[in-house]
């Protein structure tokens, strides 16, 4: 299956999980289900933007503790309500404390700093009027947007679910600590995959490591309790690869049986009879990471109730393609555009570690004066 079709198939395979109403304190990083509109004008009362004096009319002003009339001033602090409707609004202003001085019951501006009418007064509705959209549907909620929601009197928000993922990591040759002996490799997945999947909008809820044993792999998948299961290794057809047989024993249905992409060609997507989805990654580190990023994202997007993220365009070098294959090449951004890494073998992580993204190189290759599609890495904030 072509890489673009595999991505479309992955996105179509998943159904959005139920939406959740969560307190503001738990909504950070979640995506909003519907527009958040202002339930009232923001701010809903006029207030002082500075410490100083509320003055009306021309100065100097006589100090008063009451509502000031023309020629009078009353001390105010930042945020204090100003009854603008009860004042001569055309001449009311706030004189900043550092721009005035008091003497003998009078306030005078200094250094010609008399305020203009309305200056340093926050008018009603200056941030938003009632019914105006404050945060748009689909927005990822950040600390500032949560503060905005709180200022609008909101205590909870309806957001898309965060998909849960169970990891099943296979391989007799994989060790978890230290330097591997000949014939063994260090675990390259259990630590980084948590961060990768979190960056794609998911939450890892369990990790199971099993050897290259059909019964153990079958049992691990059967017992994984999450709407999406991610496996590593065992996607080939050698005597040590048992994933296909495990899926067959479980009644799984292959939705994507290999992808015309490099690295990551042996990637599979399957569905179990109970509706759980499985993203089966190859065992080589770069191949698995590229597949997790480019095929995991559509699956997680659909589970989260949002569209698949489209690649973006960047200046591209002259790069040859490969027949009937999409190449996914780590690159770095320079003054001349995207520069592919020299470390792009399916088992190499060095190139991806310093990359700014993944170049999408179609069969026809790229032209030197053209542009390429780029897939963002979950841990890199792209320049736009």
From TrEMBL:
What keywords are assigned to this protein? Magnesium, Metal-binding, Molybdenum, Molybdenum cofactor biosynthesis, Transferase
Known EC number: 2.10.1.1
Instruction: Look up and give the organism this protein is from.
Output: Naasia lichenicola
Named in its record, the pathway it takes part in is: Cofactor biosynthesis; molybdopterin biosynthesis
The record, for PROSITE patterns, names: MOCF_BIOSYNTHESIS_1
Ranges where the MoaB/Mog domain occurs: 166-302
GO CC, one annotated term: cytosol
Known catalysed reaction(s)?
adenylyl-molybdopterin + molybdate = Mo-molybdopterin + AMP + H(+)
Query: What does this chain do?
Result: Catalyzes the insertion of molybdate into adenylated molybdopterin with the concomitant release of AMP.
Its GO biological process annotations read: Mo-molybdopterin cofactor biosynthetic process
Name of the molecule in the record: Molybdopterin molybdenumtransferase
């Amino acid at each position: 299956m072509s890489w673009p079709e595999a991505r479309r198939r992955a996105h179509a395979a998943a159904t959005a999980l139920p939406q959740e109403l969560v307190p503001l304190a738990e909504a950070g990083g979640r995506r909003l289900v519907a527009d958040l509109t202002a339930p009232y004008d923001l701010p809903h009362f006029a207030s002082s933007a500075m410490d100083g004096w509320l003055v009306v009319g021309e100065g100097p002003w006589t100090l008063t503790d009451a509502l000031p009339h023309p020629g009078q001033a009353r001390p105010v602090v930042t945020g204090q309500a100003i009854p603008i409707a009860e004042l001569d609004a055309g001449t009311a202003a706030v004189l900043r404390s550092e721009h005035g001085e008091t003497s003998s019951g009078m306030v005078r501006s200094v250094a010609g700093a008399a305020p203009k009418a309305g200056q340093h007064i926050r008018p009603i509705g200056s941030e938003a009027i009632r019914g105006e959209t404050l945060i748009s549907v689909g927005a990822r909620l950040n600390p500032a947007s949560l503060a905005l929601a709180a200022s609008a009197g909101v205590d909870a928000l309806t957001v898309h679910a965060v998909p849960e993922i169970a990891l099943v990591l296979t391989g007799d040759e994989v060790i978890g600590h230290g330097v591997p002996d000949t014939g063994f490799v260090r675990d390259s997945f259990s630590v980084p995959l948590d961060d990768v999947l979190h960056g794609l909008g998911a939450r890892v809820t369990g990790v199971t490591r099993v050897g290259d044993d059909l019964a153990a792999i079958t049992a691990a998948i059967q017992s994984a309790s999450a709407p999406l299961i991610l496996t590593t290794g065992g996607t080939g057809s050698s005597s040590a690869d048992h994933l296909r047989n495990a899926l067959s024993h479980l009644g799984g249905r292959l939705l994507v049986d290999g992808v015309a992409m490099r690295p990551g060609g042996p990637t599979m997507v399957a569905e179990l009879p109970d509706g759980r989805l499985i993203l089966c990654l190859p065992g080589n580190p770069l191949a698995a990471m590229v597949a997790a990023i480019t095929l995991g994202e559509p699956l997680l997007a659909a589970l989260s109730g949002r569209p698949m993220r489209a690649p973006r365009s960047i200046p591209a070098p002259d790069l040859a393609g490969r027949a009937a294959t999409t190449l996914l090449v780590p690159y770095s951004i320079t003054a001349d555009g995207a520069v592919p890494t020299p470390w792009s073998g399916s088992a190499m992580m060095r190139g991806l570690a310093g990359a700014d993204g993944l170049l999408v190189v179609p069969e026809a290759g790229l032209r030197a004066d053209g542009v390429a599609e780029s897939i963002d890495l979950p841990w890199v904030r792209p320049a736009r």
